[in-house]
Amino acid sequence: MKHEALRRRVVAAELRVATQIDTVRAGARALRADTRAAVTPLRIVTGGFLGGFAIGLAAPMSQVARLANVPKLLQLATGIVGFVNALRVQQAAEATEAAADEVGEASQRIDETL
To answer: Which of 5, 20, 22, 107 lies most in the core, judged by the most C-beta atoms within 10 Å?
Structure first.
């Protein structure tokens, strides 16, 4: 290939990497904003009241010892949310890494032709 064609490919690969980085940053900002919007003090307090009321109706005092697993279930639920977010971040990082590899290969080709 000619030098100019390789240079154009490198510029295109760099543009893809920059676009991917911007996409990942925008996704992270959106995730942060959605999390802040979803976890409001009113929702937290309401959830606490409703959860306490439901536990009070469902379990008499003799069975409260059985409910010791509730904190573990909450940990599991928050862990699942974190896991899903980590998967999204990992996918974005892999896409960025693939684009960076393309840039590196194109750069090596240019160096070989010079």
So the answer is: 20
DSSP assignment of 34-52, as one string?
Answer: HHHHHS-HHHHHHHHHHHH
Q: How many CB atoms lie within 10 A of CB 99?
A: 19
Instruction: Tell me the C-alpha distance between 92 and 79, whole Å.
Output: 20
Are 96 and 24 in contact, with CB atoms under 8 Å apart? yes
Task: Answer yes or no: are the C-beta atoms of 1 and 111 closer than 8 Å.
Answer: no
Q: Which two tokens stand for residue 22?
A: 């911007």
AA identity, residue 76: L
**CA 17, CA 97: separation in Å to the nearest integer?**
8
Among 18, 2, 25, CA closest to 103: 18
This prediction has a pTM of 0.37
pLDDT per residue as tens digits for the range 17-34: 988 988 898 888 888 888
* DSSP type of residue 59: -
Contact present, 110 and 10 (Cβ < 8 Å): yes
Q: Could you say which DSSP state residue 19 is in?
A: H
